[in-house]
Design a protein that fits this description.
The chain contains 15 helices and no strands. By secondary structure, the protein is mainly alpha-helical. The protein has one domain.
Length: 318
């Protein structure tokens, strides 16, 4: 987090680059997507974990390519924001993703949400505002990059939900089709912007082989993460996935403070706490609405029943 989480490449980039001096996030992202492509190919073609779902060429470009493109934007914006704001602040901003997901689904996809859903988003938005106002290391450019990243994350998650549910995709097939597109999209800017730096690093860095092993291992872990992300989306819904991702925010904020010792004011901590409580309350409201959708009251109008699945729609697993 998805989602509601930092992208696999951005998180590993910020961690491994400090040890290896490999400060090339686009290249690392390409390595991750290449590993995901190979992993999905082995899982489908060699291990036969899942049968290959045939997709027409026009649907690949109309459905999968936009999701891959938005996924790449999400990764780049995450890396940019981490250069200007602390990890703890960026993770807190990412908690705003459920709100952007609901708003996008309502405005663009015309999905219906009960008033309780909107009310439960109030503490999340309020907590984000309090955290932003009291952030001691606030940077407008990093803040904007993180906020636009929330929109990109929401768009990517909604597109993935539409792809998985509407086309009966499973997680491995999604990675199988998405990862090559993502590699193609990122390879050109990676070569143009970081190619000379990578070549210089290969010639100047002393322990190249162990470093490459670490980078490739992070790519394997990225495949495992991408697989789990799309599996969760397939098993639940886009908004539920983003809310579940917020559960790691508290741990991420604490660990980032322990490692980087970035200053956190009392009101800033309160704002982060309000955001996390809001996410928990939102999950509870979602659970109540889900129960009502599966066990509707006899008095519930038929038009209402037709709108409820849009909030908590489920798809049978393949």
């Amino acid at each position: 987090n998805g989602g509601a989480s930092t992208s696999p490449s951005s998180s590993s980039t910020s961690g491994s680059s400090r040890k290896l001096e490999f400060k090339f996030p686009l290249t690392v992202s390409c390595v991750h997507f290449i590993c995901s492509s190979i992993g999905a190919y082995i899982a489908i073609k060699v291990l036969k974990v899942k049968p290959l779902i045939e997709v027409a060429p026009e649907d690949r470009w109309k459905r999968i390519f936009p999701m891959s493109f938005v996924f790449c934007i999400n990764i780049v914006l995450g890396n940019i924001s981490l250069r200007y704001i602390p990890v703890s602040f960026m993770q807190t901003i990412k908690s705003f993703t459920p709100a952007t997901t609901v708003i996008l689904q309502w405005l663009v996809w015309r999905k219906y949400f009960e008033w309780r859903i909107w009310a439960s988003l109030i503490p999340i938005v309020g907590g984000i505002l309090l955290t932003s106002v009291t952030e001691l290391s606030f940077n407008m450019f990093g803040f904007c990059a993180a906020m636009v990243g929330c929109l990109a994350t929401s768009t990517k998650t909604i597109l993935a939900e539409s792809l998985l549910h509407g086309y009966k995709f499973d997680s491995i097939n999604t990675v199988y089709y998405m990862a090559p597109f993502a590699t193609m999209i990122l390879s050109i800017p990676a070569i143009v912007l970081e190619g000379s730096g990578v070549i210089n690093w290969l010639y100047t860095y002393e322990s190249t082989v162990p470093a490459l092993v670490i980078i490739i291992t992070s790519g394997v872990l990225a495949f495992c993460l991408n697989f789990s992300i799309f599996y969760v989306i397939h098993s639940t819904t886009a908004v539920t996935f983003n809310v579940a991702g917020n559960l790691k925010v508290a741990v991420a904020v604490l660990i980032s403070w322990m490692i980087f010792r970035n200053p956190i004011s009392a009101m800033n901590a309160v704002g982060c706490g309000i955001t996390l409580v809001g996410c928990t309350f939102y999950g509870y409201v979602r659970h109540l609405i889900s129960q009502q959708a599966t066990s509707p009251s006899p008095r519930t109008p038929r038009s209402r029943l037709e709108m409820l699945p849009l909030v908590c729609e489920k798809q049978e697993k393949i």
